[in-house]
Each structure stands twice: as structure tokens, then as C-alpha cells.
Amino acid sequence: MNHGDDSMTINKLEKIETYIKNALLGILALLVYFILPEIQGIFFAIFKVDIANVSTNIKIIYSIVYNILILALIVLIFRKSLKKEFHDMKENHKNYYQNYFKYYLIGLVIMMFSNVIISSISKGGIAGNQESIEQLFEISPLYVYFASVIFAPIVEELVFRKAIRNIIPNKILFILVSGFLFGSLHVIGSIEAWYDLLYIVPYSSLGIVFAYILYKTENIFVSMGLHFMHNGILIALQFFMLLLG
């Protein structure tokens, strides 16, 4: 018996087993992210509460609590790897951000440049997704802050980066799927004109950059930290503009 061949076979089986486990975790996270929001009104239905008669503040509080539930479930799914990556981040955060912050800046420049081009095509129009955020911001800045600066960076990085990385081991395919799915889902629900589809490009630019960073670092907290920073700056500017208005 060739012990070398046996060892190689065992290693292959272990790699396959590890991939299957990771892929199943990724699929589970995707299911939680896409299915739970679709049944968000289930508790109102169970207790026979007419949503039309519920105050805006109660709806906002309910949405925040429900989003926290989704966040907690997805974090729970990846808890083992997150613990390991968190310790790695504490030890190597300076090196990570020194090496990869430049890629975020490249993605940001592409995002801004493409937004300018699309805005000229749409004659000054803005992305439907951005318009929805601005309208909601006027109703409840607190909810927008929570959804954009806390919920989105954590959940979107775990779903669009980590989960998809678990499912797609190929570098190029993972980066493209992660980036364009991220960009598409920021646009697809608020399409009002044909040029709204073009906004997939600026949203995808950062998605692709974040996916590339995850591939290189194998640590979700690097892209998550950059996502926190990006959304935090945008919401701060939005809040400042609201005050000026």
C-alpha cells in the first residue's frame, strides 16, 4: 500500500468536506438574508395587527429589532471563523489597512467618476436607491444611521463577500459574482428609468474592490471596516446637507 497516495486521498477528502461545510454555511446565510425580510410582517399577521394603523415610530422600532435579529442569525452562522478573523484583525489591522486602503480609494474614484457620467446621461437624476435613502432620512435619521452604518456593513459583507466566497472558491468568479450581485441588489428594487440600470456600475465597483480585499486577506473584518467608514462618511454628509437644508 502506498502511504503517500493514501495521505493525498485523505487530504482531498478533507478539503472536499471543508468546502461542503463552508458552502452550506454560505447558502444558509444567503437564505436568511433574502427570505427573512420577505416575511417581516409575520408578527403583525400572527397577532392580527393592521399595519396601516401602526404608527411610523413603531414601524421603525420594529424594523430595527427585526434587522438586529437577521444580523444576529448571520453572525451566528459564521461565529467560528469570525472569532478567528477577529483575533487576526487585532494583531494585523495596521498592515491590512496600509496595504489595502488604496484599493478602496481606487474603487471610490471609479464609483464617483461613473456616477458623474451616468448623471450627465440622466440629466441630473440620481439613483433610485439613493433617492429612497434621502426620503427615509427625512423621516427617521436614526433608522437610516442604523441601517446604513451598522447593519449594512456587517450583514452585506458577511452575505455578499463571506457567504459567496464560501460557495465560489474560484478567485475571478467570486470577485465578479460578489461585486455585481452587490451592485445589482442596490439598484434593482428602485428602477424607474432605463438609465437606473447603469448605477449597477458604481455600486459594483466598491463591491468588486471589497471582494478582492477579502480574497487577498482572507479576513472579512478588513472589507467590513472599510465599508463602515464609507457608509459612515456618506451618512454624515447626508446629515450635514439635511441641516443646511
Q: Please indicate the percent range of residues in DSSP E strands (runs of 2 or more).
A: under 5%
What's the number of extended β-strand segments? 0
Biggest pleated-sheet summary: none
Let me know the average pLDDT: 88
Bulk shape: globular
Q: How many whole angstroms does the radius of gyration measure?
A: 20 Å
Number of helices: 9
Quote the distance from N terminus to C terminus.
79 Å
Q: Which structural class do you get from the secondary structure elements?
A: mainly alpha
Low-confidence runs: none
- Compressed to H and E, one letter per element, the order equals HHHHHHHHH
Percent range of helical residues: over 70%
What does this structure look like?
The protein has helices at residues 3-35, 42-46, 56-77, 79-121, 128-139, 141-167, 171-185, 200-217, 220-244. Helix 5 (128-139) packs across helix 6, helix 6 (141-167) runs antiparallel to helix 9 (220-244) and helix 7 (171-185) packs antiparallel against helix 8. The radius of gyration is 20 Å and the shape is globular. It contains nine helices and no strands. The mean pLDDT is 88. The longest helix has 43 residues, at 79-121. The chain is an all-alpha fold.
